[in-house]
Amino acid sequence: MFDMMKMMGKVKEVQEKMKEAQATLAQIEIEGESGAGLVKATVNGQKKVIKVSIDDSLVNTADKDIVQDLIVAAINKAMDEADILAKEHIQKQTEGMMPNIPGFDLGNMFNG
Fold first, then answer.
1. Fewer beta carbons within 10 angstroms: which end of the chain, N or C?
2. Do residues 51 and 68 make contact, with C-beta atoms less than 8 angstroms apart?
3. Measured on CA atoms in the order 82, 84, 85, 91, is the torsion positive or negative?
């Protein structure tokens, strides 16, 4: 027999585990490089850019820190906008298919 309260308890439990997993992902750092190490990017497990490093031979050293920070900010802003667009698209495509359950956000299931 279908037990709605038990199912809702499981949903709540899954949501809590997802929050814990997201918090853990924020602590993971991954580095990628190009140009034989001339440019390096560090991201966390939530796909947020943490740091960009550019070798001194590629830029004016006086402006290097500003350029690196601006690159990080621009990439993260674009990623945030992409997340919003993806969530809106998923909601539009699944409209009417899932009941509106308070606290249950299907769109979050598809974000990195």
1. N
2. yes
3. positive
Let me know if residue 50 belongs to a domain: yes
5 occurs within a structural domain: no
- Give pLDDT tens digits for 50-84: 999 999 999 988 999 999 999 999 999 999 999 99
Residue 59 lies in a domain: yes
CA 59-63-65 angle, to 5 degrees, is: 100
pTM of the model: 0.63
**Is residue 105 included in any domain, yes or no?**
no
49: helix, coil or strand?
strand
What are the b/e assignments for 14-44, b being 16+ CB within 10 Å?
eeeeeeeeeeeeeeeeeeeeeeeeebbbbbe
| C-beta separation of 40 from 32 below 8 A | yes
